[in-house]
Every structure is written in structure tokens, then in C-alpha cells.
Amino acid sequence: KSKRILWDSNSAWTLSVIEYLTDNPNFRRKLFSDSTREAKESGRKKNQGKDGKSQMHLVLAAEVFGKST
Predict the structure, then answer these.
(1) pLDDT in tens, 53-68
(2) What CA–CA distance (Å, rounded) separates 5 from 44?
């Protein structure tokens, strides 16, 4: 069984996630399923990820937990 991640006692992790998602809007849109309607309303093309959500979660985890080591 995997070890439980204690987010509430490690606020730096949460801040890392927020910072990464803020600094990488294309990644954020792909992760949270960019919609065609929102893209059209914003005057841009829809972001589609060639990587699956699992791969994107690995990227985000490496960003967050890689900094804490």
C-alpha cells in the first residue's frame, strides 16, 4: 500500500502545484480538460494532450516532490 501524502502539513507542496499550474496554462487546460467552447470564446485553439492524464500527473508530482528532496 502506498504511503499517505499529508498535504495539510506540507503547504509548500500545495503552493508548488498552484505555481506550476499558473505558470503553465497549456498544461493546466490539458489536465483539466480544455473545452472547445472555452477555447473558441478565448480566441484560441483547443489544447489537446498527446499524453494521458496519468503521464501528466507524473509530471506534476515530479515538479512538486522533486523540489522537496
Answers:
(1) 888 899 999 998 886 5
(2) 37
